[in-house]
């Protein structure tokens, strides 16, 4: 549905969600590791940089989702925080 120039998706009964607040994802059980560079920045689901934190070189962490944001693959590392798939290596999946 379009309402005042904004696209919405119908999710249940009388509830709607803005299209800009929705993204595709696949559940996974992966251990990822940042590459050997000083910091790796994270983004939120709206592609905004997370300003107060970053990941250090060679940091390992678990990811339970691979999200498609702006047609690019990102690993979710915390709630609404994602790291670019080009910035990490998958250690175990």
Concise summary:
This protein has a single domain (23-92), classed as SH3 type barrels (Roll). It has no helices and 10 strands. It has strands spanning 2-3, 6-12, 15-18, 24-34, 39-40, 55-56, 60-69, 72-78, 81-84, 88-92.
What does this protein structure show overall?
The protein is mainly β and 93 residues long. It has a single domain, classed as SH3 type barrels (Roll). Helix content is 0%, strand content 58%. It is built from no helices and ten strands. The strands form three sheets. It has a five-stranded antiparallel beta sheet with strand order 9-8-7-4-10, with no helix packed on it. A three-stranded antiparallel beta sheet has the order 1-2-3, with no helix packed on it. The termini are far apart.
Q: Roughly what fraction of the amino acids lie in strands?
A: over 45%
SSE pattern: EEEEEEEEEE
Give the overall pLDDT as a whole number. Answer: 95
Provide the gyration radius in Å.
15 Å
Unreliable parts? none
Using DSSP, what is the number of strands?
Answer: 10
The 3D shape can be described as: elongated
Sheet with the most strands: spatial strand order: 9-8-7-4-10
Q: Which fold name is given in CATH as the topology? A: SH3 type barrels
Helix content: under 10%
Oligomer: single chain
CATH architecture type: Roll
Protein name: Surface layer protein A domain-containing protein
């Amino acid at each position: 549905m379009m309402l005042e120039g904004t696209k919405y998706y119908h999710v249940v009964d009388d509830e709607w969600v803005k299209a800009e607040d929705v993204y595709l994802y696949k559940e996974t059980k992966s251990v990822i590791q940042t590459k050997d560079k000083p910091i790796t920045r994270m983004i939120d689901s709206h592609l905004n940089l997370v300003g107060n934190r970053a990941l250090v070189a060679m940091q390992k962490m678990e990811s339970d989702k691979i999200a498609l944001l702006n047609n690019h693959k990102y690993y979710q590392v915390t709630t609404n925080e994602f790291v670019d798939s080009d910035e990490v290596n998958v250690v175990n999946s």
